[in-house]
Design goal:
Blueprint: E1 8-13, H1 20-29, E2 33-37, H2 43-60, E3 65-69, E4 85-87, E5 92-96, E6 106-108, H3 112-117, E7 123-126, E8 131-139, E9 142-149, E10 151-153, E11 159-160, H4 173-184, E12 189-192, H5 198-208, E13 213-218, H6 221-225, H7 227-233, E14 236-240, H8 241-247, H9 253-267, E15 271-274, H10 289-300, E16 305-308, H11 310-313, H12 318-334, H13 336-344, H14 353-368, E17 372-376, H15 381-388, E18 394-399, H16 402-407, E19 414-418, H17 425-438, E20 447-453, E21 462-469
Parallel strand pairs: 1-2, 1-16, 2-3, 3-12, 5-6, 12-13, 13-14, 14-15, 15-16, 17-18, 17-20, 18-19
Antiparallel strand pairs: 4-10, 5-9, 7-8, 7-11, 8-9, 20-21
């Protein structure tokens, strides 16, 4: 079941979609990767979900990626003795280390690391920015704030601190337990929330030890300030526009989205655009025109994947949301201006043999109007480098590693197939042609371009291009 589009779709599973029949329908509608959100999933629930995804993969004969999204630190206020309180603009409000229930003048902040890090002038947002304050006095156990935007605050509401760098790891004890459980289930991607610095990703990679790929969610101003070093160490990026739009001015988010998509493409790393893409389809069978344009913009920008969250996890129309996203992507990629925009965004390749081969493969493929570029790859890096070039023909990745095939399910334009490694050059060409025909990328006597590394099975040894006719498998 090869897709007729290059951009991939990530669908979050949840109460509305967490059964085998719905997962199969979501895949058939266009989902390429399924996300398990550990903010809501138990370990047993995660295991069962992954089991159903793997069963769907076997039934459909196509590798499907699994992305486990770690919750990260959740900063919240404490409770109130008499229920919700109404904060008035201009009043002072105290956040302190006293665990006693709060009132209209104060509340417990159960995060001593925050109280230590706050300083006068820092902004504090409560309940996704519905209430806004700024700090006027701060000591290690108590902060006095003035209310800038009035509103109601109730028990355990979330706190965002756009100006404060919090000296805590992005990994909580819960995240460590969730990560261990996910790795034991052989997940393909791990998404790290609340990333502030490159060390946050390094910490996760040290635990993962190559058993999964690590994706950095960019949702904090502190991450934007260190974007280059975070991009360098991460295997992929996510433009997590939810918290990013809370902690930064909303009008900056579209520009940051473009900066992230282009920066990731420059490095040859996948980038996912997420949050509120088809938000109205949580309760409506059709999206708004603005949402359609939002998805289309991400596709035009060259994002590797677009993601559905509540739309597919808890909405009334999960399958319709995926099908709608699929139709939008297919139509955008048919538009004549799409290829013009994608080509205009091409980056200067790095001065490595692998990048030179990838650029040459794209040029040869487009010059000869071949039907597919077949990449023999062990680690997936060859296919990712070719995808970085956004070639007009499809990219067929042939790999002996099932984990690699699943990881590539999030990468732009890559259709991955698991097969044993080539024995020699003739076997390499013969089976590349066979799979190009079998997967319906080419017909007999169509030309294909084959990219590989010799000796076979050596990661990072991409050093060869070959042109073949797809009838040669005979």
């Amino acid at each position: 079941m090869r897709r007729l589009r290059r951009v991939k779709i990530v669908a979050t599973l949840g109460p509305a979609s967490n059964d085998r029949a719905t997962i199969e329908r979501l895949f058939d509608a266009g989902a390429d990767v399924f996300r398990v959100n550990m903010s809501h999933a138990t370990h047993d629930g995660m295991r069962e979900t992954i089991r159903m995804i793997r069963a769907t993969s076997e039934a459909r004969g196509r590798e499907i990626g699994v992305l486990v999204d770690l919750q990260g630190p959740k900063l919240r206020v404490g409770t109130f003795a008499a229920g919700p309180v109404e904060l008035v603009e201009g009043q002072t409000f105290v956040l302190d280390s006293d665990p006693a229930p709060g009132d209209a003048t104060r509340v417990y902040l159960p995060h001593p690391e925050i109280l230590k890090a706050l300083a006068p002038g820092h902004k504090m947002l409560i309940d996704d920015g519905k209430v806004a304050l700024h700090i006027i006095e701060a000591t290690p156990g108590r902060a006095v704030a003035r209310v800038d935007v009035a509103g109601k605050v109730s028990n355990r509401k979330g706190v965002n601190l756009p100006d404060t760098e919090i000296p805590v790891s992005a990994m909580t004890p819960k995240d460590r337990a969730d990560l261990d459980a996910a790795l034991n289930e052989g997940v393909d991607w791990v998404a790290v929330s609340f990333v502030q610095r490159a060390d946050d990703i390094a910490e996760v990679k040290k635990i993962v030890r190559g058993r999964a790929m690590v994706l950095a969610k960019i949702e904090k101003p502190q991450a934007i300030a260190r974007l280059d070093e975070i991009m360098e160490i991460s295997d992929a990026l996510m433009v997590a526009r939810g918290d990013l739009g809370v902690e930064m001015p909303l009008e900056r988010v579209p520009g940051l989205q473009k900066r992230l998509t282009r920066g990731a493409r420059r490095l040859g790393k996948p980038v996912v655009v997420a949050t509120q893409m088809l938000e109205s389809m949580i309760a409506s069978p059709v999206p708004t025109r603005a949402e359609v344009s939002d998805v289309a913009t991400a596709v035009f920008d060259g994002a590797d994947a677009v993601m559905l969250s509540a739309e597919s996890a808890a909405g009334q129309y999960p399958v319709e949301a995926v099908a709608t996203m699929n139709r939008i992507a297919v139509e955008v990629e048919r538009d004549p201006i799409y290829r013009t925009i994608i080509n205009a965004q091409r980056q200067t390749p790095e001065q490595t043999g692998a990048d030179a081969i990838a650029v040459a493969a794209r040029d040869v493929a487009e010059t000869l109007d071949v039907k597919a570029i077949c990449a023999w790859t062990s680690s997936g890096s060859t296919a990712m480098r070719i995808a970085r070039e956004r070639p007009a023909p499809a990219v067929l990745a042939l790999t002996p590693n099932r984990a690699t095939a699943r990881q590539l399910s999030i990468v732009w334009g890559v259709h991955a197939v698991t097969t044993k490694d080539a024995d020699d050059l003739d076997d390499m060409a013969k089976r590349a042609c066979k799979f190009a025909n079998r997967e319906e990328f080419s017909r007999e006597n169509d030309r294909i371009v084959i990219v590989a590394g010799v000796p076979f099975g050596t990661p990072g040894a991409t050093n060869m291009i070959r042109i073949a006719f797809a009838g040669n498998e005979k």
